[in-house]
Specification:
By secondary structure, the protein is an alpha/beta fold. The protein contains 15 helices and nine strands. Strands 5-4-3-6-7-9-8 form a seven-stranded mixed beta sheet, with helices on both faces. A hairpin with a 2-residue loop joins strand 1 and strand 2. Helix 2 crosses helix 5. The radius of gyration is 22 Å and the shape is globular.
Length: 343
């Protein structure tokens, strides 16, 4: 939790924060971090002139961008030689094991960033018909659906691996992945649990990409095109996973989702909810709060989730033995439990 601000400069840091974001996104679009990584074996790194040559951008423009990246801590050095910060080297260089640059430059920059321009209209109930006001409306555009799902894929494989370590699915044979997107979580769960069969339910334009991404597991992963809020869920199943779903639907729909899960899960089966959640006292984490704000920008009736609200909803639906763990530090949590055995 950040302490109370005390001066104008701190306010400006927040107000100008979008400028640093844009510098990061432009650097990703220009592959600057990747170019710098190619020179990491040289003590001086790559200079501004070299970056200008390989990127095709004028040296003055490159220098301005790089100065912003240096002052933001993403890069070290000066125009005589630049080196990636440890974080940039690990997460922003193409081909790095944990790289998620495509997620940032496509989903966050190309899609989420513009949505924030309609936040005021959402809060003041002044959205017009041409605004996007739900995932269903947004994902009806095949181009937007593919861009969102493709960029989200790399951002789901890592958390999917973590979830597979947290939740014991050794007794499950059939899992329904509601709003499962490209299948990133489904892939990791199938890798961890060889007996598991998964059905991904998501919008028709989304599951088209899921078929491509999960082709190597086509004998274990199938898809169902539909809207999680209106489509009949297949069942019975041994487990239901809902990842990044509750924060992106109207708040009044959350209880219904929990009840639908309870109805299709076999007695003794498991429920898993993974999403952006702030602490119960709503003092942080900041990144989770920002993500919830972003969801509000195009889902006017979305609500800010806490572990307590999620657990209360699951308990009301009939689930027991609930557990909670941080999944992505500072951003998301997983809550899982089970449906009671029959008497």
């Amino acid at each position: 939790m950040a302490g109370p601000l005390t001066n104008a400069e701190q306010i400006s840091e927040i107000a100008f924060g979008f400028m640093a974001s844009k510098a990061l996104f432009v650097a990703l679009h220009l592959d600057l971090f990747t170019y710098i990584a190619e020179f990491k074996g040289q003590e001086a790194g790559i200079d501004a002139e070299g970056l200008s040559t390989v990127s095709g951008i004028s040296i003055d423009r490159v220098t301005t961008i790089m100065t912003t990246l240096v002052t933001s801590g993403l890069v070290e050095g000066d125009p005589h030689g630049y080196r990636n910060s440890p974080a940039a080297e690990s997460f922003l260089v193409k081909g790095a094991r944990y790289e998620f640059g495509d997620y940032l430059r496509y989903q966050i920059d190309r899609q989420m960033f513009p949505f924030m321009n309609q936040l005021e209209a959402v809060v003041t109930d002044s959205l017009t018909d041409d605004h996007t006001d739900s995932y269903a409306k947004w994902m009806a555009d095949s181009g937007e659906a593919r861009l969102y799902t493709e960029s989200q894929h790399s951002g789901s494989l890592g958390p999917g691996r973590t979830l597979a370590r947290l939740v014991d699915l050794s007794g499950a044979r059939r899992l329904l992945d509601v709003a499962g997107g490209s299948g990133g979580f489904a892939i990791r769960l199938c890798e961890a649990w060889p007996e598991l069969q998964v059905t991904i339910l998501d919008f028709p334009n989304v599951v088209q990409l899921a078929v491509e991404k999960t082709a190597h597991l086509s004998d274990r992963i199938d898809v169902l095109g539909g809207d999680a809020l209106v489509t009949e869920w297949p069942g019975p199943v041994d487990a239901v996973l809902m990842s990044y779903l509750w924060s992106g639907v109207p708040g009044k729909a959350i209880a219904e989702l929990a009840e639908k899960a309870f109805d299709v899960i076999e007695p003794g089966g498991q429920i898993i909810v993974h999403d952006f959640m702030v602490d119960d006292d709503r003092q942080g984490p900041r990144l989770a709060a920002l993500w919830q704000l972003q969801h509000l920008a195009f889902t006017p009736d979305a609500v800010s989730l806490t572990p307590e609200t999620v657990m209360n909803c699951l308990t009301s639906a009939g689930f027991i033995d609930l557990h909670e763990e941080v999944l992505i530090a500072g951003m998301t949590r997983a809550i899982w439990g089970r449906k009671p055995e029959t008497d």
